[in-house]
């Protein structure tokens, strides 16, 4: 199984290794170019920091203009805003998770 993983990793081509980028990028490719994880793209899209091409369905594949993504990757102010947005989103998610935890006494302890 380990050999299959190595083979798969060696055959996968990173978008960053391409000589010429395609005109539009998938969410995963755009995240790689911007230096974010793929699961951060919905947060950036919801925060209006990245705009997908056209009018995709909420559960549809979203494509992004390569020229726009490259311009954003060079904008340090935008990168700061995006990083802050992702940090705040995770902080809110963790805060909600902590609030939903209820106290459960140990089963061995008599109440």
**Uncertain runs with pLDDT below 50, 5 residues or more?**
7-11
Number of H- or I-type helical stretches: 5
Secondary-structure content class:
mainly alpha
Task: Give the ordered list of helices and strands.
Answer: HEHHEHH
- Radius of gyration, rounded? 20 Å
Q: How many angstroms separate the termini? A: 50 Å
Mean pLDDT: 83
User: What is the strand content?
Assistant: 5-15%
**What is the CATH fold-level name of one domain?**
Multidrug-efflux Transporter Regulator, Chain: A, Domain 2
Biggest pleated sheet: 2 strands, antiparallel
Helicity range of the residues?
40-55%
**Total beta strands:** 2
Question: What is the gist of this entry?
Answer:
This protein is mainly α and 111 residues long.
Question: Descriptors for this entry?
Answer:
single chain, 111 residues, Multidrug-efflux Transporter Regulator, Chain: A, Domain 2, two-stranded antiparallel sheet, elongated
């Amino acid at each position: 199984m380990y050999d299959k993983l190595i083979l798969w990793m060696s055959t996968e081509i990173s978008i960053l290794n391409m000589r010429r980028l395609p005109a539009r990028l998938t969410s995963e490719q755009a995240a790689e170019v911007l230096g974010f994880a793929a699961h951060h793209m919905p947060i950036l899209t919801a925060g209006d920091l990245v705009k997908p091409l056209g009018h995709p369905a909420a559960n549809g594949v979203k494509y992004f203009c390569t020229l726009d993504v490259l311009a954003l990757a060079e904008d340090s102010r935008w990168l700061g805003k995006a990083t802050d947005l992702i940090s705040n989103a995770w902080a809110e998610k963790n805060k909600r998770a902590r609030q939903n935890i209820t106290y459960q006494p140990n089963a061995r302890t008599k109440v």
